[in-house]
Every structure is written in C-alpha cells, then in structure tokens.
Design a protein that fits this description.
The chain has 382 residues and is an all-alpha fold. The protein has one domain (2-183, 198-376): Up-down Bundle (Growth Hormone, Chain: A). It is built from 17 helices and no strands. Helix 8 runs parallel beside helix 15.
C-alpha cells in the first residue's frame, strides 16, 4: 500500500506542476499580447494552434501510455519536456518563434495531461473510493499558484521572460523528486493497431461532449478572463489576472470536496447541480460591470465546472470496451477540443462585437453541461 501512497503523491505533484505551467502562461497573456502587439483575433488564432497541437499529442501520448505504461511516459514528459514549454515562450522574440513555442506548449502540456490522467485512473482503482477529483484539485491549486504569482509579478512589473525562466527552473528540480517513484502501469502492446487519432464512440461520445463544454468554459476563462477584466472594468494587468486566480481557487476548493460529493450524490447528480452553478456565474459576468461581482462570477464558474472533467476522465478510465490510454485520449480529443475552438471562436466574436458580448458562450455551455449530466454515470442512469 505504501507504493500506491507514494504514487498518489507523485501523481498529485505532477497535476500541480501541470497546473502551475498553465496558470503561469494564462496570467501573463496580457504582457505577451503587448510585447508582440497581438489583436484579439491573432491571440485567438495563436491559442487555436496550441489546441490543435494538443489534440494531435493526445493520441500520441495516449498510445505511448498504453504501450510503455502511463507512469513511465508521465514522469519523463514532466521532468524533461514540461519545463521547456515556458522557456521557449519566454525567449520567443518574433511572431514566428512565438507560434512555434506555443505549438510546442500545446503539444507537451496536452500530451502530459493525457498520460497523467491515465496514471491517475490506475492509482484510483487501487482505492475503494473515488480520488480522481483530488488529483484535479492539485491541478487547480497549481493553476491558482501560477496565476497568483503571475498576478503579483505583473503588479510589480517583473518581465515575463524572467518570470517564466524562474518557474521553469523550479519546476524541473521539483519534478525530479518523482523520478524514482516505482509504479507498474498496465501495458498494451497491441495499441499500435488502433487509429492514430482517438475518436470517442458509443457511450464515450456524450462523455466527451460534456467534457468539450466544460473545457471550452475553462479555456475561455483561462485565456480571456484577464483581457475581459481589462476591457470591462479597466484594470491593470495585476488586478486583471485575479479573475483566473479566483476561478482557480474556487475550482480547487470544489475539487477537494468533489470525490465525497460524487460518491454521495452520484456522478450524474453532482454534474447536474454543477451546471446550474456555472450557469449562475456566467450570467453574472454578462449583466455586471462591478469588479467584485465579476470576480464572483468567475468564482461560481470555477465551482460549477470543477468536477466535470475529473468525472469524465474517471468514467473513461473505467470503460470496459476500450484500453485505458486510448479511452482517455479519445475523451481529451473531443473534450479538450473546447480548448481549441472556444478561445478562437471567442476571439473572433470579440473582434466582431466586444469582449463582453463574446462571453455569451459561457451560459450556453453551462446549460449543455446540465443537459448531458446523466452520461457521466457508468450505467447512464439519472
């Protein structure tokens, strides 16, 4: 049992690292936009490219996790590849270099996401209770730490290049602590016969669809909340980054309770109430200009979508009809397609109308989460 306790710590740390990287990136998007003089449409296109590279990486890392073991792939990606994602963005001094850096960021961050969720599903099966939400809570904690630190450094006008370089060094040495954690992951040598791009089918299709809506909402808040607050409330970069910080803290808090809530209510009921909370927060963003109420809106969205993705990955990891890595990759392919299409669509809509008007997609996504919640149970019972 000590092995699994160590593995739970290792997976928790990896989720936190993955979140820190994402929060660091999201918190300094306004500075990156200013440095490269990007328009809303250009930023949306750049994030689209990151999402596209992630979708390709989902299947590659999912197949690799099946073939070589999720623990093996996750540890090596986190230690050797993840720290470089911020380094490359930090030292991208032209639009062309930035495009390449963001594509690398999307591929490695997304691929590591699939591998670590596959390992998390294996660790969860060793327990008699759900633990997936606690892993995702660590991701949210990491994202909150990354965003909070970014907000603080932006307030003191610390250059994002120095910021990203420092975080990368810390991440590398922190990740080394899990290098020797032993865990024998499942391996499937026949995975090479599966399709290159993992597409969800059958009962996994609605699971992937609800993940798409949750991911679209999360991506919109992560990539556009700071721009939204600067536009609506006329804030500086430091205060504008607080939107994603509050969102991440609320998501973290809910995910800490998510395993108990889903165990008590069941996955479907938990998801149904979550959709209603996210819908309330989304409406607040559309009708208010108050900084406090806007932060409340972002917080409620964080609370509302917190358990959706953990429940979806847990559902996929326990599917009996498809291998674990391929199942999780298929959920990520369509699910995190929201990360790809959402920011792009939001950017284009903002270009045509306004930043605030473009956020109308959030209550729509929350309604769909409510409507599809029943599919997150293995038996699909309401």
């Amino acid at each position: 049992m000590n092995i699994f306790k160590n593995s739970r710590f290792a997976v928790s740390l990896i989720f936190a690292i993955n979140g820190i990287v994402f929060g660091t990136w999201a918190s300094r998007i306004p500075a990156i936009v200013d440095f490269h003089d990007l328009s809303p449409g250009s930023l949306g296109l750049l994030i689209f490219l990151a999402g596209l590279s992630a979708i390709i990486a989902f299947s590659v890392f999912g197949r690799a996790a099946d073939r070589y073991g999720a623990a093996f792939i996750t540890k090596r990606a986190t230690i050797f590849l993840i720290p470089l994602t911020l380094i490359f963005i930090a030292f991208a001094n032209s639009i062309g270099m930035l495009v390449i850096a963001v594509i690398y960021f999307g591929a490695i961050h997304g691929g590591d996401d699939v591998a670590m969720n596959a390992w998390a599903a294996e660790v969860e099966r060793e327990y008699t209770r759900p633990v997936m939400s606690s892993f995702h809570a660590m991701w949210s904690l990491g994202a909150g730490i990354g965003a909070g630190l970014g907000s603080l450094l932006a307030f003191f006008e610390v250059d994002y290049k120095n910021h990203f370089s420092l975080v990368s060094i810390i991440i590398f040495f922190t990740a080394l602590t899990i290098a020797f954690v032993h865990f024998e992951s499942q391996k499937n040598k026949k995975v090479t016969k599966s399709p290159f791009i993992s597409i969800p089918k059958g009962t996994l299709l609605p699971v992937a669809t609800i993940t798409f809506f949750a991911s679209l909402s999360e991506g919109a808040v992560a990539d556009w909340s700071a721009i939204f607050l600067k536009s609506v409330a006329s804030l500086n970069d430091g205060n504008a980054a607080l939107g994603f910080t509050v969102f991440s803290i609320c998501m973290f808090s809910m995910r800490l309770m998510g395993d108990k809530i889903s165990f008590k209510l069941g996955p479907s009921t938990a998801a149904r109430y979550s959709g209603l909370v996210a819908l309330t927060g989304s409406i607040i963003l559309l009708i208010s200009d108050s900084f406090f109420l806007l932060l409340l809106g972002f917080g409620l969205i964080g609370l509302g979508i917190a358990v959706i993705i953990p429940l979806a990955f847990s559902r996929a990891g326990n599917d009996k009809t498809i291998s674990q890595g391929t199942a999780i990759a298929s959920i990520a392919t369509l699910g995190y397609g929201g990360m790809l299409l959402g920011p792009l669509f939001l950017g284009l809509l903002a270009e045509i109308t306004s930043i605030k008007t473009s956020f109308i997609i959030l209550p729509i996504m929350a309604f769909f989460i409510f409507s599809l919640s029943k599919h997150l149970s293995l038996d699909s019972e309401v």
